[in-house]
């Protein structure tokens, strides 16, 4: 028999010595009374006074504000196991556990994880995996039955993964074997594999019928963080990457930086839908490897940068609407959490520059988190933190008079710029590059661009060619018509995806002209694939042409 038992509350101002004594006493009690060791899942209450769920306790309708005394609400439990998203971690004994503000679990480490269920195992006999290549003849999958439901502790960015051996980047050395001693200041990422693919993606409502299912082999993943000390109850989960487990708090969120823009509620995307998109961790430690399109969990995240950018952009604009804080709170917490995760990866050398449409949508969550937490750490990133939107945009002399240009960067090899050439002179890869500009990149960046401009963050983004590319795309009037010499403007330009992203198009039409005056970024630069070495930035001679100066 198992039942929950309330552990001692740690009130604000309690000395560390008292905390240690309480931990010793409660641990001794739990060892003396093994039948009383509590186990509970993520949807069970943290308080025995009345039933409650994670969402009502951690992400309730009353946002925590700066200066509010939340320490008095601090609660933790002794538990020998915890569960989330169908994944259960079992320990060798009871440890103090609790939940971060986004609902993810922490455990006071070091801790021995004796088992995770469903556990890592070879492919089940009823598994069905269809692995057709994409239109380029590529696939990120292989015929390998060795492992499903793998777990990782990720300390180094890169494509290698230990989750599912069907992925070509699989390495058994990257997969955790249980029992496992999880050090303090480490994060254990555990997964569940899809038994059958293709399967429906989390964000199918945003997709056209041909892309509502995916060949990705992972179903879901969850993060267990081993902490060195009990965090406050409004703490965000530290990044799941590396050993830097700095704590940020919901009470420090800068609500004054969110606007209250009018918009017809009937035309606003579903809050519940977008909250769900950010509910689970977006695994992004593969350095944008294109093989992730066949790997990343279908119930956690999109696998293609086009959808990352779309979802991040729409969510960011929703947070600037004229609705109560209570309506915004859950989505805000989850988007900020996404930025915290990405910033942790960037600190250790992570980058997102895979070319094509793979890795958009990573820079803005980091900057947004920094704005909302008022911390310059999110802006001052290492030189190795390279972002898709920046490497693909630069200034030059375009064939129809435009100065904000776009390039593919890489796709089955490095690709040269092409927009300076007249379309009559485009070669096959120039034409393919243009197709990616129109299908999968600039077309999806409007939400991020507008959200950044609304928050006066153009100089923080620090790459003006990104904003000018988006302006040229979203502008309804074709200011370059006379220079096109009869070649029509691409029909996709003038808005976002129709009809799925009409909200972005409508917000742009209403509020782009109302963004505040703000500084441009620093010296323009261009990503030049002809340069040697991993960092290929060169000075960009053209200056921004901006109306937000």
From TrEMBL:
<protein>
    <recommendedName>
        <fullName>DUF4962 domain-containing protein</fullName>
    </recommendedName>
</protein>
<keyword id="KW-0732">Signal</keyword>
<feature type="signal peptide">
    <location>
        <begin position="1"/>
        <end position="41"/>
    </location>
</feature>
<feature type="region of interest" description="Disordered">
    <location>
        <begin position="118"/>
        <end position="137"/>
    </location>
</feature>
<feature type="region of interest" description="Disordered">
    <location>
        <begin position="514"/>
        <end position="549"/>
    </location>
</feature>
């Amino acid at each position: 028999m198992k039942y929950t038992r309330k552990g001692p509350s740690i009130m604000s101002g309690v000395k560390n010595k008292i905390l240690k004594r309480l931990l010793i006493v409660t641990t001794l009690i739990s060892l003396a009374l093994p039948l009383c060791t509590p186990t509970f899942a993520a949807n069970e209450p943290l308080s025995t006074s009345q039933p409650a769920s994670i969402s009502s306790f951690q992400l309730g309708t009353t946002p925590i504000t700066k200066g509010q005394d939340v320490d008095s609400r601090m609660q933790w439990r002794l538990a020998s196991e915890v569960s989330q998203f169908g994944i259960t971690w079992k320990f060798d004994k009871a440890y103090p556990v609790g939940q971060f503000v986004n609902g993810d679990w922490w455990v006071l480490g070091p801790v021995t994880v004796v088992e995770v269920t469903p556990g890592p195992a070879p492919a089940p006999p009823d598994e069905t995996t269809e692995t057709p290549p994409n239109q380029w003849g590529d696939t990120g999958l292989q015929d390998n039955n060795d492992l499903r439901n793998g777990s990782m502790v990720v300390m180094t960015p890169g494509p290698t993964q230990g989750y599912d051996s069907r992925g070509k980047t699989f390495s058994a050395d990257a997969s955790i074997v249980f029992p496992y001693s999880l050090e303090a200041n480490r994060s254990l990422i555990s997964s569940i594999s899809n038994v059958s693919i293709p399967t429906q993606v989390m964000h199918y409502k945003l997709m056209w019928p041909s892309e509502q299912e995916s060949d990705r082999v992972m179903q879901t993943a969850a993060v267990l963080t081993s902490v060195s000390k009990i965090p406050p109850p409004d703490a965000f989960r530290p990044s799941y990457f590396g050993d830097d487990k700095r704590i940020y708090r919901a009470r420090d969120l800068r609500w004054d930086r969110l606007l209250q823009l009018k918009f017809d509620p009937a035309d606003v995307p579903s809050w519940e839908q977008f909250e769900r998109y950010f509910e689970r961790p977006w695994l992004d430690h593969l350095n944008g490897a294109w093989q992730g399109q066949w790997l990343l969990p279908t119930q956690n995240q999109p696998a293609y940068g086009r959808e990352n950018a779309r979802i991040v952009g729409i969510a960011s604009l929703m947070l600037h609407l004229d609705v109560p804080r209570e309506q915004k709170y859950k989505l805000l917490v989850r988007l900020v959490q996404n930025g915290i995760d990405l910033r942790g990866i960037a600190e250790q050398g992570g980058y997102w520059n895979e070319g094509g449409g793979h890795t958009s949508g990573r820079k803005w969550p980091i900057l947004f988190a920094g704005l909302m937490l008022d911390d310059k750490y999110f802006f001052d990133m290492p030189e190795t933190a390279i972002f898709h939107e920046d490497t693909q945009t630069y200034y030059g002399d375009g064939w129809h008079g435009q100065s904000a240009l776009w390039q593919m960067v890489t796709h089955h090899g490095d690709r040269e710029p092409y927009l300076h050439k007249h379309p009559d002179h485009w070669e096959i890869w120039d034409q393919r590059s243009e197709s990616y500009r129109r299908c999968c990149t600039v077309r999806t960046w409007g939400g991020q661009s507008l959200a950044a401009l609304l928050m006066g963050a153009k100089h923080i983004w620090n790459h003006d060619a990104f904003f000018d590319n988006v302006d040229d795309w979203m502008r309804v009037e074709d200011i370059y018509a006379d220079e096109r010499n009869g070649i029509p403007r691409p029909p996709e330009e003038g808005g976002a995806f129709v009809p799925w992203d009409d909200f972005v198009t409508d917000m742009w039409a209403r509020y782009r002209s109302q963004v505040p005056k703000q500084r441009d970024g620093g010296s323009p630069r261009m990503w030049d694939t002809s340069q040697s070495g991993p960092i290929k930035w060169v000075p960009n001679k053209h200056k921004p042409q901006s109306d937000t100066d």
